[in-house]
Every structure is written in structure tokens, then in C-alpha cells.
Design a protein that fits this description.
Elements: E1 3-6, H1 29-40, H2 47-62, E2 75-76, H3 79-85, H4 94-99, E3 103-106, H5 147-164, H6 171-191, H7 198-208, H8 213-226, H9 233-245, H10 248-262, H11 268-273
Helix pairs in contact: 5-6, 6-8, 7-9, 8-9, 8-10
Length: 274
């Protein structure tokens, strides 16, 4: 069964010896969620959704066992079950709560931001069916977090970028940017005592597959230079969405300004001197 947990659950803990656990609700909660919604280009949370999150907090507190679940308790991705046990009056839209980064989903068979998308499409482009066209046995393993899926994702992106932007295609740059981005996201989870799971990586890859590869590469560069190890994959995807909404010339201006600010400190220097 698919499951989810409260995002950053341990951040809200103060009294570990209480049963059920006590938790904190920060006064910046609403502002943080509104900012996330704006970055993702989606509608801000309703009062009902904010209230549902509080009820889910209480439910998580009743099932918490820090010795077993370092990232917080896993709850079933079942709206009817959540409604019953959290004493809600209506069924919660868990996919919507996940998109708003209020909860984190595990073991998803599909992208939580698009429930109708099959899992097999996680690296697909809308304009290309060249997904995972490089045989597994011939692929160079990327190593690190993500294992075989990481290698498949990067190979699929390389195929897409070569097709969409042959004049700008540089394979070693694509692999460097994606690997550094994945490592930065994973390190951020580790710092928060969590993990960049396969389910999270697949959902992230699905979102990136909807954007132009040039927008994704630009987002990778900005993320690696400014947000690595501090912000998660959803924030990086928000950057990619913003870049995807720009035209090619506007995107070129954005990355030019970014590189000017970074000088010789950015990841681009590794591409130039690599």
C-alpha cells in the first residue's frame, strides 16, 4: 500500500517523552506554504487544507515511534482511512496536500502531482518516446543515491536533450549537472535525518519530464550554485517550472545574470575546465 508521512515531522517535535507526542505549529506555516504554492505555480492552500494538515499532525503523533521511523510515522495513502482516524468531516485530497509539500509520499505507483500519469512515464517527454533507449548493460553506472533508476533517469534526459537541443548538447555537462543536483538533494535530506527515496526521485523525474530540457539544465545550475544541500527536489522543480515558463531569450538572460553573480564560483567552471 502507498503511504505518506508529515513533511519535516521531527522539526516539529519538542517533548519526546509525551504519549502521544506533542508537536509545534510554527507561526510562519501559512506563509511558507503560500510561498511554496507560488513557486510551483499552483493555487494557495485553502483554510480547510490547512486545518486538515493539523488533524493529520495529531494522527501522526498517535502513531509516532522515533526508534522505528526516523523520518516520522508512515500513514496509509487512503483518504477514507485518514478521514475516519483523523476525525475529518470530508475526504482529504492527499495528492493536493503532497503537491503543496504538506506531506511526503512513499512508494508511489504514480506521480502525486498527476494521479492519472502511469509510473512507466516518469522519464517520458510529451514530444518523445525515446525513454531509456540506451541498453542497461551498455550504460555507465552513475553511482551514489538512486542506484539503477538514477542511471536510467540521466540516460533518458541525455537522449531528450540531444533531440530537443542538438546545437547546445554537451553530454558531460548534462551528467555533471544532474548528478550534482541529485547529490545535493540527497545531502539535504541526510542533514534533516531523512532520505531521498526512490519514490521521491521518481515523482521528481516525472515533473522534470514535462519541462524543456534547457529549462531543466538551467534549473540544475541555479540549484547547484545556490540551494544545494539546503532545499529539496520540489524547490528545484519549482525553479525548473519558472525557467520553463520563460522564452529561450529570457532564459538565456536569467542564466547570464546568474553566472555573472557567481563569477568563477559556479558549477559552470567545472564544465569549462572539465
Amino acid at each position: 500500500m502507498d503511504t505518506f508521512r508529515v513533511r519535516n515531522w521531527r522539526k516539529y517535535q519538542r517533548y519526546t517523552d509525551r504519549r502521544p507526542k506533542w508537536f509545534c505549529i510554527y507561526t510562519t506555516l501559512r506563509e511558507d506554504i503560500d510561498f511554496t504554492a507560488a513557486k510551483l505555480g499552483i493555487a494557495p492552500p485553502t483554510d480547510a487544507e490547512i486545518g486538515q494538515r493539523g488533524c493529520i499532525f495529531s494522527l501522526a503523533a498517535k502513531h509516532d515511534d522515533p526508534d522505528r521511523d526516523a523520518d516520522g510515522p508512515d500513514l496509509p495513502m487512503d483518504p477514507a482511512w485518514i478521514k475516519k482516524h483523523a476525525n475529518l468531516s470530508t475526504l482529504p485530497d492527499l495528492n493536493r496536500l503532497a503537491t503543496l509539500c504538506l506531506i511526503e509520499c512513499n512508494n508511489l505507483s504514480q506521480d502525486v502531482t498527476n494521479p492519472s500519469a502511469p509510473a512507466s512515464d516518469f522519464c517520458a517527454s510529451e514530444n518523445s518516446n525515446a525513454v531509456l533507449s540506451v541498453p542497461v548493460k551498455d550504460r555507465k553506472q552513475e553511482g551514489g543515491v538512486g542506484g539503477d533508476f538514477r542511471s536510467q533517469m540521466i540516460d533518458a534526459f541525455v537522449v531528450r536533450w540531444r533531440k530537443e537541443h542538438p546545437a547546445d548538447f554537451v553530454e558531460n555537462a548534462a551528467r555533471l549537472y544532474l548528478n550534482r543536483t541529485i547529490d545535493g538533494i540527497a545531502a539535504g535530506y541526510t542533514n534533516r535525518k531523512g532520505s531521498f527515496t526512490a519514490a521521491r526521485m521518481k515523482a521528481w523525474a516525472t515533473r522534470l519530464s514535462r519541462y524543456d530540457t534547457d529549462a531543466v539544465m538551467t534549473a540544475c545550475e541555479v540549484y547547484c550554485d545556490r540551494y544545494s544541500e539546503t532545499m529539496d527536489e520540489r524547490y528545484m522543480a519549482g525553479i525548473a517550472l519558472k525557467m520553463n515558463q520563460l522564452g529561450p531569450k529570457e532564459r538565456d538572460l536569467e542564466i547570464a545574470r546568474h553566472r555573472q553573480r557567481m563569477g568563477e564560483l559556479g558549477i559552470m567552471r567545472e564544465v569549462k575546465h572539465g
